[in-house]
Amino acid sequence: VQLQASGGGSVQAGDSLRLSCAASGRTFTNWIMGWFRQAPGKDREFVASITWNLGTTRYADSMKGRFTISRDKANVMVYLDMNGLNPEDTAVYYCASRSSAATTYSYWGKGTLVTVSS
Fold this sequence. Notes:
The protein starts with a strand and ends with a strand. A hairpin with a 4-residue loop joins strand 7 and strand 8. It has no helices and eleven strands. It has strands spanning 2-6, 9-12, 17-24, 31-38, 44-51, 57-59, 67-72, 77-82, 91-99, 107-108, 112-117. 31% of the residues are buried.
């Protein structure tokens, strides 16, 4: 499985940004795709996830209402739309995937850096 995240960059507070994750290497039926982030000096944290089959989503409480995760089955892509960005959202964002039967994420892509300035 290969996961390639892209779309990071430097933005101003209040701006929006879309991150993309290109997934390949297997069919993702019954898999879950997730976004995580790691801010400087902090542990990696869960952002959002989506089930490949039904598109059921889950979000970290602090991201609800601002971030939206989606997937494009035809193009095997996962997206993270981020609105109302603030400097606390500055982090490296990672795309990850796991089987729905697994409890931990098995595959991780290289991150994409998002920097939000005030």
